[in-house]
Structure formats: structure tokens, C-alpha cells
């Protein structure tokens, strides 16, 4: 375990007068898988979206890859990041959404190559070669020319994971990746994620899949009401929760 | 009478099915047929249609020149309007309040006044600004200066009038198209590190096109017809050309029929073109329902090309 990929100290986020995050402290180290659990409205997804600056933090300090999110420090002052800086930071962070958000007007292959070609400046050919490798990895090597709507939800989500991986990210964010799937399709997506974890990818996962958290996570973080209630290895948090709220949540889900 | 399926004597599956009758449909058909027959009889027997004159002038040089100018006006004005409309829509959706207000004011002004008034304004612009010059505003030197009448001849006045008026409408159509694209698409594009300009070009606008194209087709067909207003500033487009002829020959009705036929021909061609453009931008999306009668006909005629349907059927 080496450097912290994500470090949060007192991270706050409010939308108008609603405080969604009320001071989050956590560290995610390289190669670790961290699962964020908690009831809806607890701020899990909001925190995830702060990591790649889809939301800007309202208070506290959040660093990713050793860089402040949304700001650059120069000569003792914080300058708001330029669009180019924000985009460069984001391109190193893969994100997988609950509703897949594949680009519907592009084929599966184009979905995977658009980022590497337009953002990274990779050649079309090299990007296509890598895309085919990744699609094979997620078990969809035969769907290159298909359009997203011709795929099942589970297949779409696996394409979405491959699209994120095509950018060669150093960190992957998953925002309830299986919540919109039919139960029988969840397994395929989780298998791809497990595989990714075993290859040493650093992952931050918002999920309701307790089985996945127990099996794959290095750290489980239970959030409620915008704060971290409890965190630790899955064996501790899931099996011997110390906090009353964690216990109530787990008994409701399990 | 109640049917008891357990009683073996009743075999419902073998009974003859009588389809539902629709007597009122036949009444409707009768009314339509009588009306159409009356119209056709009028076309054929009323000598004042003067079909011979229509035939003489349909392909005459003056009429074709007028048609050419109408097509030219429509194409140029629509091209400018679409580009300007996209720019205005992006300005209205921008985070810069100055751009938003400027675009809003533009739409307010050009949508809020009649096209006829705007055309007259552009035509008589030289009365307002006799010279047009390029230089530093308020204090600086003038580099070049033109006589407004020579820089803005009738044709340019017509283009300006049509294009600016139309761009106000196009900007609203484009804006609606952009707003119709799911938030998740913006976020997915942002999360792979796309800048806003790239995201708009590659992800959002191509998807917005599906929503933008049908009303734009309408607007193009509308523009074809609006361009006839230009006849009031004396530009010899299609309507003005036939007006010039019937002013001389007094064959008013047949000449208006000549114009009508050409407008219908071009409108039909545009409708067919719209079908193919819609299909291109609809790739990856569900097959669109309905559309115009011509579109429905084309859809039936060309479905054997529809690869996406075949693949999804597998």
C-alpha cells in the first residue's frame, strides 16, 4: 500500500441550503477497492461526483492523484482550474454510471475510441486495436458494430466499463453500476468489476451489492446523512457493525 | 348467452368470426369521393383554368429563372439561418450572461416583427445609413467606406431579411434540440475529459439533430414560400416572375397555377430529402413513428436497407 489516490479532509457540499456532505474524511490508497454503502440521500453519489469534479466541493480539501480537485495552488494562492486542467484531471479517472450513458448515435467501437482519439490524440487505428482488446476482456468482442440500443442493460454496462478503461485511467469510479439492471444481468457486470479489482485497479464503488462489497472491497465505508458513520474492512463493518445506524441499515438490506 | 367451456358440446374455437362493421367509414368515403370528383370535373371542364397557357409557361425561361432565384434565396438564407441559429442557441445556453442576453434580445427583435416589415427595412436601409464604413467605432479613423445602395442591392437585402428572421426561429429549434439531450450524455462526455466545445460537436449536437431536423425541414419548406414575400421589393423570384408575366398578358389564374405547381414540386423534393437526412441522424435510435405521408411511403419503400432493424431482430 503506497500513496493515497483520493484524500478527503472535511469535504462539504451543499446545494443551496441543503447540506449533502457535512465533512467527509477518507483515504483511498493505490490498488484498493473501496465500497461506499448507505441509504439513498446519504451523499455517496455526490461524493463520487466530487472526485471527478462533476460537482464542485463547497468546503474542505479533496485531492485526487495528489492534486486539489478544481483548484491549482500557485505561490500560496488557490486558482480555480481552467477547463483544460479539469479535463486533463478527468481523463485519468474512469466513471461508470447507473444508467450507462453510452453515446446512442455511435457504435460500440466508436463509443470506445472517441475518448482516446479526441481527448488523448491517439491514432484511430491504435485506439481501435485497444478497444477490441477491452471488449474481448468484458466478453463482448462480437458487438463492435452494434449500437447501444441493440444490447441488453448488462451488455451496455460492460461496454460502459470498457469505454472508461479505454482512457487508461488510474482510478475508476462506479456509481451504482448494477442498480438499473435486471437481476439476472447483475452477475456479468460484477464479474467484470471483480476481474478489474484483481488486476489491481484502484476503485471507488457506490453500491447496494453487499455480496460484492464483502468479497472484493478492501475498505467498506458506511455513510448516512452526509457523514462517514463507520469504515473499515468488510468483515468488521458488515459483520460486526459498531454503530447503531449501520446495524439498522444492514439488517434492512441483508 | 353465457358460454360454458367445460361443456363439451360448445366448440368456440371452430366458430366463424364476424369482423366488426364500420358503416360511418363508408359515409365518409362517399363524401370524400363526391368532393374530389367535383373538383376534378372543375379542373377539366372550366375553361378559365386555361391549362394550355399553364403548359406554355411552365417551362418558359422567365419562370425557370424565377424558380432558380427562389431556390437560391431559400438555400442561401436557410444555410445562414441554420449556422446563425446554432450560434445563437449556444450563446443562449452559455454560462456567460452577456452572451445570453444578447442572443435573447436578437431573438426577441427578429421574431417579434413581421418578415415583410424587415424586408422593407433592409431594402431601404440606405435611407437610414447612406454610407457604411469600416473603422474604429466612435473615435477612430475610417478605413473603407461604401455607398449603402451598392453594398446592399436588392438581392442582399432579401437574403439579410430572410436569413436573420429565420435564424431567430432556428435558434429556438436548436436550443430545444440541445435541451432534449439527456444530462447523462453531458456527464459521460465530461467524465472522459471532453471539453465543452468538443462535447457539443461530437456528442450533443449529433443527438440533438434528431429533434432539430423535422422542424428544420418544416422551416425550409416555409422559407421556400416566405421567399415569395421578396416580390414586394421587386426581386424577380418565382412569384414576381409570374406576376410580371400576368401584368402583361392578364392570364392571372394560369400563371398563379404555374407558380403553385413549381412550389409543390420543390416542396415534394424537399420532403423526400428530409426523409433521408432524418434517417441518417436517427441511426442507433428507435425507428421513428409515422411522419408525413411521403415519409411513410419512402419508409416502406426503403426498409430493406434498414440494417439496424435486421440486426436487432436476430
TrEMBL record, chain A:
Where mainly located? Answer: membrane
* Record localization: Cell membrane
- Identify the SMART domains for this entry: AAA
Stored Pfam families: ABC_tran
- Its membrane topology, per UniProt? Peripheral membrane protein
Read off the SUPFAM superfamilies from this record: P-loop containing nucleoside triphosphate hydrolases
The entry lists its GO molecular-function terms as: ATP binding
Q: Extract the PROSITE patterns matched here.
A: ABC_TRANSPORTER_1, ABC_TRANSPORTER_2
- Alphabetical UniProt keywords: ATP-binding, Cell membrane, Membrane, Nucleotide-binding, Transport
> Boundaries of each ABC transporter domain copy?
6-250
Protein name, entry field: Amino acid ABC transporter ATP-binding protein
UniProtKB/TrEMBL annotation, chain B:
CDD domains hit by this protein: TM_PBP2
What keywords are assigned to this protein? Amino-acid transport, Cell membrane, Membrane, Transmembrane, Transmembrane helix, Transport
Q: What positions does the domain ABC transmembrane type-1 occupy?
A: 67-274
Q: What is its main location?
A: membrane
Q: What residue ranges are annotated as transmembrane?
A: 24-43, 74-91, 146-165, 253-277
Q: Say which domain of life the source belongs to.
A: Bacteria
Give the subcellular location. Cell membrane
Q: Does the keyword Ribosomal protein apply?
A: no
Q: Which InterPro entries does the record match to this protein? A: AA_ABC_transptr_permease_3TM (IPR010065), ArtM/GltK/GlnP/TcyL/YhdX-like (IPR043429), MetI-like (IPR000515), MetI-like_sf (IPR035906)
**Keyword check for Membrane:** yes
How this chain sits in the membrane, per its record, is: Multi-pass membrane protein
Q: Which PROSITE patterns match?
A: ABC_TM1 (PS50928)
Q: Which family does it belong to?
A: Belongs to the binding-protein-dependent transport system permease family.
Name the record gives this protein: Amino acid ABC transporter permease
Protein species of origin: Leifsonella bigeumensis
Amino acid at each position: 500500500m503506497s500513496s493515497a489516490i483520493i484524500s478527503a479532509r472535511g469535504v462539504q457540499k451543499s446545494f443551496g441550503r441543503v447540506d449533502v456532505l457535512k465533512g467527509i474524511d477518507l483515504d483511498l490508497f493505490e490498488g484498493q477497492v473501496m465500497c461506499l454503502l448507505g441509504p439513498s440521500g446519504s451523499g455517496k453519489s455526490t461524493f463520487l461526483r466530487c472526485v471527478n469534479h462533476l460537482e464542485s466541493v463547497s468546503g474542505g480539501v479533496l485531492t485526487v492523484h495528489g492534486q486539489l480537485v478544481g483548484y491549482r495552488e500557485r505561490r500560496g494562492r488557490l486558482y480555480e482550474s481552467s477547463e483544460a486542467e479539469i479535463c486533463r484531471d478527468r481523463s485519468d479517472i474512469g466513471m461508470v454510471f447507473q444508467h450507462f450513458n453510452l453515446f446512442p448515435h455511435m457504435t460500440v467501437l466508436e463509443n470506445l475510441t472517441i475518448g482516446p482519439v479526441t481527448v488523448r490524440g491517439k491514432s484511430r487505428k491504435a485506439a481501435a486495436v485497444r478497444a477490441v482488446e477491452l471488449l474481448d476482456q468484458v466478453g463482448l468482442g462480437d458487438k463492435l458494430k452494434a449500437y447501444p440500443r441493440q444490447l441488453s442493460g448488462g451488455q451496455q454496462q460492460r461496454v460502459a466499463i470498457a469505454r472508461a478503461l479505454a482512457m487508461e485511467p488510474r482510478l475508476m469510479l462506479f456509481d451504482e453500476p448494477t442498480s438499473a439492471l435486471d437481476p439476472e444481468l447483475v452477475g456479468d457486470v460484477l464479474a467484470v468489476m471483480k476481474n478489474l479489482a484483481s488486476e489491481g485497479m484502484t476503485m471507488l464503488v457506490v453500491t447496494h451489492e453487499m455480496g460484492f462489497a464483502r468479497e472484493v472491497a478492501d475498505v467498506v465505508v458506511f455513510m448516512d446523512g452526509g457523514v462517514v458513520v463507520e469504515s473499515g474492512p468488510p468483515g468488521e463493518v458488515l459483520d460486526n457493525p459498531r454503530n447503531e445506524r449501520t446495524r439498522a441499515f444492514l439488517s434492512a438490506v441483508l | 348467452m353465457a358460454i360454458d367451456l367445460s361443456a363439451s358440446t360448445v366448440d368456440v374455437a371452430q366458430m366463424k368470426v364476424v369482423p366488426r362493421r364500420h358503416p360511418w367509414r363508408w359515409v365518409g368515403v362517399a363524401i370524400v369521393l363526391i368532393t374530389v370528383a367535383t373538383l376534378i370535373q372543375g379542373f377539366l371542364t372550366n375553361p378559365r383554368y386555361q391549362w394550355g397557357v399553364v403548359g406554355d409557361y411552365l417551362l418558359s425561361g422567365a419562370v425557370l429563372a424565377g424558380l432558380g432565384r427562389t431556390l437560391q434565396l431559400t438555400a442561401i438564407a436557410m444555410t445562414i439561418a441554420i449556422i446563425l441559429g446554432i450560434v445563437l442557441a449556444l450563446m443562449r445556453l452559455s454560462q456567460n450572461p452577456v452572451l445570453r442576453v444578447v442572443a435573447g434580445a436578437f431573438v426577441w427583435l427578429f421574431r417579434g416583427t413581421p418578415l415583410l416589415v424587415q424586408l422593407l427595412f433592409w431594402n431601404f436601409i440606405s435611407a437610414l445609413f447612406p454610407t457604411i464604413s469600416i473603422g474604429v467605432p466612435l473615435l477612430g479613423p475610417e478605413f473603407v467606406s461604401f455607398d449603402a445602395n451598392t453594398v446592399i442591392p436588392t438581392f442582399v437585402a432579401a437574403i439579410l431579411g430572410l436569413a436573420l428572421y429565420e435564424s431567430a426561429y432556428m435558434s429556438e429549434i436548436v436550443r430545444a434540440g440541445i435541451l432534449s439531450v439527456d444530462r447523462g450524455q453531458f456527464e459521460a462526455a465530461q467524465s472522459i475529459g471532453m471539453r465543452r466545445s468538443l462535447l457539443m460537436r461530437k456528442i450533443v449536437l449529433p443527438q440533438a439533430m434528431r429533434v432539430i431536423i423535422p422542424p428544420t425541414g418544416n422551416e425550409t419548406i416555409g422559407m421556400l414560400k416566405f421567399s415569395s414575400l421578396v416580390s414586394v421589393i421587386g426581386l424577380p423570384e418565382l412569384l414576381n416572375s409570374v406576376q410580371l408575366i400576368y401584368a402583361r398578358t392578364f392570364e392571372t389564374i394560369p400563371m398563379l397555377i404555374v407558380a403553385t405547381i413549381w412550389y409543390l414540386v420543390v416542396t415534394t423534393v424537399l420532403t423526400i430529402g428530409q426523409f433521408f437526412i432524418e434517417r441518417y441522424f436517427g441511426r442507433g435510435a428507435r425507428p421513428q413513428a409515422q411522419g408525413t405521408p411521403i415519409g411513410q411511403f419512402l419508409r416502406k419503400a426503403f426498409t430493406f436497407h434498414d440494417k439496424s432493424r435486421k440486426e436487432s431482430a436476430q
